[in-house]
């Protein structure tokens, strides 16, 4: 009986030592799935290429080319451009838009009225009203309250970055004041 008891004690001690040794070891880790590389943002391009790439500015991009303003808006800037989406240009009667696209000086004047020198981001827009001077020397009124408006036209998407400025999408074409006669 004493031998059987000794064997049980020795077996229990061996089991205890085995359990203690096992507690100090960590369970083998499962292999982690390979991580996909972090997405790389495409490099920023100038305002002209950005407006062409977005997909909702095809009329604006066509007008920029027709008015020979591509070099200006692809230049160093920086510029802030209030770009009407294609639906905004669709509000203009087709014959009026066609005539405007054919009249380079008037088209250039209209487009320059959408451009302000300097980079004005959404974060830079202060609550209240701010007067901005456009590339054609006229003024725009930027109003920030429950939304952002420029000359009463709603900014429907703010802050699309470009290498030489920023685009804010508007839902109507801005109309400059009548040209000054000399």
Task: Detail the topology: elements first, then pairings.
Layout: H1 2-24, H2 47-54, H3 58-66, H4 70-74, E1 79-84, H5 86-90, H6 94-102, H7 104-112, E2 115-117, E3 128-133, E4 139-144, E5 148-150, E6 153-162, E7 165-170
Parallel strand pairs: 1-7
Antiparallel strand pairs: 1-2, 3-4, 4-5, 5-6, 6-7
Helix pairs in contact: 2-3, 3-7
Polypeptide structure, described:
This protein is an alpha+beta fold. The chain has seven helices and seven strands; from the N terminus they run ααααβαααββββββ. The chain has a seven-stranded mixed sheet with strand order 2-1-7-6-5-4-3. Strand 4 and strand 5 form a beta hairpin. Helix 3 (58-66) packs across helix 7. The longest helix has 23 residues, at 2-24. Residues 4-21 have low confidence and may be disordered.
Which properties best describe this structure?
182 residues; alpha+beta; seven-stranded mixed sheet; 7 helices; 22% strand
Question: Low-confidence spans: pLDDT under 50, at least 5 residues?
Answer: 4-21
As laid out across the biggest beta sheet, the strand order is 2-1-7-6-5-4-3
Q: What is the overall shape? A: globular
> Could you spell the SSE succession in H and E letters?
HHHHEHHHEEEEEE
The separation of the N and C termini measures 126 Å
What about the largest sheet? 7 strands, mixed
Number of extended strands:
7
Helical stretch tally: 7
Mean pLDDT: 79
| Rg, Å, rounded | 33 Å
Percent of sequence in beta strands: 15-25%
Percentage of helical residues? 25-40%
Secondary-structure class = alpha+beta
